[in-house]
Amino acid sequence: MTESAGSGRDAEAVSRFVESFAAQLVEAGMPRMPARVFAALLSSDEGARTSAELGEQLRISPAAVSGAVRYLAQTHMVSREREPGSRRERYRVHGDQWYEALTNRETVLKRWEGALREGVTSLGADTPAGRRMAETLAFFEFVEVEIVQMMERWRVHREKTFGPE
Fold first, then answer.
1. Cβ–Cβ under 8 Å, residues 36 and 18
2. Which residues are within 8 A (CB) of 59 and not within 5 positions of it... i.e. 6 or more apart?
3. pTM (2 decimals)?
4. How far apart are CA 2 and CA 4, in angstroms?
5. Topology classification of domain 3-94
6. What confidence tens digit (pLDDT) does each residue in 83-116 have?
């Protein structure tokens, strides 16, 4: 069932938005199908769709939906949930998906920091390459602290703007 039928929305306008926003996500580095699925979920009132609904809305195969959702779930952009009384899964985008995606990058930063520390040790802190590694390491350590502080400020701002969850 398409949402625009009951919501008074212009289905063509929604489709244009989904494709336009997806194109922006692709330009920023997200693969095309996950970008389209994410934009479709984000633009739905419920923030959730079944695989069949996504396939119908985006005119893509179940395999394309599955691959896109797998990518989005791994990057913490969507979650899977069972439809009540059914074996079908629904895919949901949450209001805090950006927060979750950014916060989960912390694990990646930690791994990079470890590798860079090894690089500084291996190359020697006094070599040009070692200094470059040390500067890169210092940048990631700085970013990590800033992200934590920024996320705390976001939580306060979000609650003030949108109320408690």
1. yes
2. none
3. 0.72
4. 6
5. Arc Repressor Mutant, subunit A (1.10.10)
6. 778 888 899 998 777 777 776 677 778 888 999 9
